[in-house]
Design a protein that fits this description.
- The protein is α/β, with parallel strands linked by helices.
- It folds into two domains: 28-39 and 265-359, Aspartate Aminotransferase, domain 1, CATH 3.90.1150.10; 41-263, Type I PLP-dependent aspartate aminotransferase-like (Major domain) (Aspartate Aminotransferase, domain 2), CATH 3.40.640.10.
- 36% of the residues lie in helices and 17% in strands.
- The protein has twelve helices and 14 strands.
- A seven-stranded mixed sheet has the order 2-10-9-8-7-3-4, sandwiched between helices. The protein has a five-stranded mixed sheet with strand order 1-13-14-12-11. It has a two-stranded antiparallel sheet with strand order 5-6.
- Helix 1 runs antiparallel to helix 9, helix 2 packs parallel to helix 9 (251-260) and helix 3 packs parallel to helix 4.
- The longest helix has 23 residues, at 264-286.
- The protein is globular, with a radius of gyration of 20 Å.
- The N and C termini lie far apart (59 Å).
- The structure holds 4'-deoxy-4'-aminopyridoxal-5'-phosphate.
- 4'-deoxy-4'-aminopyridoxal-5'-phosphate (PMP) binds next to helix 3.
Length: 360
């Protein structure tokens, strides 16, 4: 039988952090930067509600959710668009801005979906070198040409955990040609307590050439419900609404996200938990000469250069014990490193126990 001809993409498909190990029923997943404390009880309550009317299509404009976001962050709801994860917003931005042969600049070790969606619409992806696994403004600017349409970056960056300071981010916007859209992905912003850091949303309230991404998948703990949002100029938001799939965010997703925004205590607890265990895990691993980035988001980027074991060995031995970290070779092509998500108390203790046995 003949298969009708489809387009060929020269793309390495996204490989998520692994979540299963053959033959093991119980695993500890520290590979996808998900929330350590689950979700807010307010969100759990709303999604266990029996009267959700799931036979109806959801509100395609996510109006209540956008209203709640606008209240919480003091931003105009007409400058907000919701997506099935921030992932979908990245895809829509690529569809809206990029024609074949246009160029985007991404840091060499950045979230993989920027390059994947840009590739799908036939844009050319230019990789900007990082310096000691930190995004470099100079290297980004070196890659800009007259064809550059978008610069994507996550701050803090995944998988490296490093970040541009407030001053560096403002400086990048100043030095980039004003016709280039700077996309600042704030996926981990809520975790950031570093005094020299400011989120994209805080820094670029009225910049028409900056687009900010936010997600409910990380600190809010709604990864499976797929809810994220973008903040940008009304012109961009109006244009995105034209190409947006009509019912892109599920009703449950909208309801849970709206409720989770109302639970500031849950966010406070999550931040406190994250800082406490990030410090604990970092100093624990340093005893074995496994060093990591200064604490930033809900993960650590582990460096095995000085350790007597390799990242691969540690990864495989943990896997046998049912504990999964994120390989940085898959997709990112970074050798002898691993990414460790800060888990719940029990998960972190189990990790440290297992690690002790492997490393001693
Ligand atoms: N941006 C960054 C920097 C991320 O790390 C991730 C998830 N790993 C995303 C975006 C996508 O998140 P979402 O679940 O909202 O699609």
């Amino acid at each position: 039988m003949t298969t009708p001809k489809f387009k060929n993409f020269n793309i390495e498909p996204y490989k998520p952090g692994k979540s299963k190990i053959k033959k093991l029923k119980k695993i500890i997943k520290l590979s996808a930067n998900e929330s350590a404390l689950g979700m807010s009880s307010k969100a759990t309550k709303i999604i266990s509600n029996k009267g959700l009317n799931l036979e109806r299509y959801p509100d395609g404009k996510s109006q209540n959710l956008r209203k709640e976001i606008s209240k919480k962050f003091k931003r105009d709801p007409d400058k907000i668009i919701c997506g099935a994860g921030s992932d979908e917003v990245i895809q829509m931005i690529c569809q809206l801005f990029l024609k074949p042969k246009d160029e985007v600049v991404v840091p060499e070790y950045s979230f993989l979906m920027y390059r994947i969606y840009a590739n799908i619409v036939d844009a050319k992806v230019k990789f900007a070198k990082e310096i000691n696994y930190k995004i470099s403004n100079i290297e980004i600017l070196k890659k800009v040409t007259k064809n550059t349409k978008i610069v994507f970056l996550a701050n803090p960056n995944n998988p490296t955990g490093t970040y541009l300071t407030k001053k560096e981010l403002l400086d990048l916007r100043k030095k980039l040609n004003k016709n280039i859209l700077l996309v600042v992905d704030d996926a981990y912003a809520e975790y950031m307590k570093n005094s020299d850091y400011k989120s994209g949303l805080d820094l670029f309230k009225n910049k028409d050439n900056v687009f900010v991404l936010r997600t409910f998948s990380k600190i809010f703990g709604l990864a499976s419900l797929r809810v994220g949002w973008g903040y940008g100029s009304k012109k961009i938001i109006n244009a995105l609404n034209v190409i947006k799939p009509p019912f892109n965010v599920s009703h449950i997703g909208q309801m849970a996200a709206t409720e989770s925004l109302k639970d500031q205590n849950f966010i406070k607890r999550s931040i406190k938990h994250n800082l406490y265990y990030a410090k604990k895990l970092k100093s624990f691993l340093e005893r074995y000469e496994i060093f990591s980035n200064p604490i930033s988001a809900n993960f650590l980027f582990l460096d095995f250069e000085k350790c007597k074991y390799t990242a691969k060995y540690f990864y495989e031995r943990l896997k046998i014990k049912g504990i999964i970290l994120r390989s940085t070779e898959d997709g990112y092509h970074i050798k002898n490193k691993l990414r460790l998500t800060i888990g719940s108390k029990n998960e972190n203790l189990a990790f440290m126990n297992a690690a002790k046995k492997i490393l001693n």
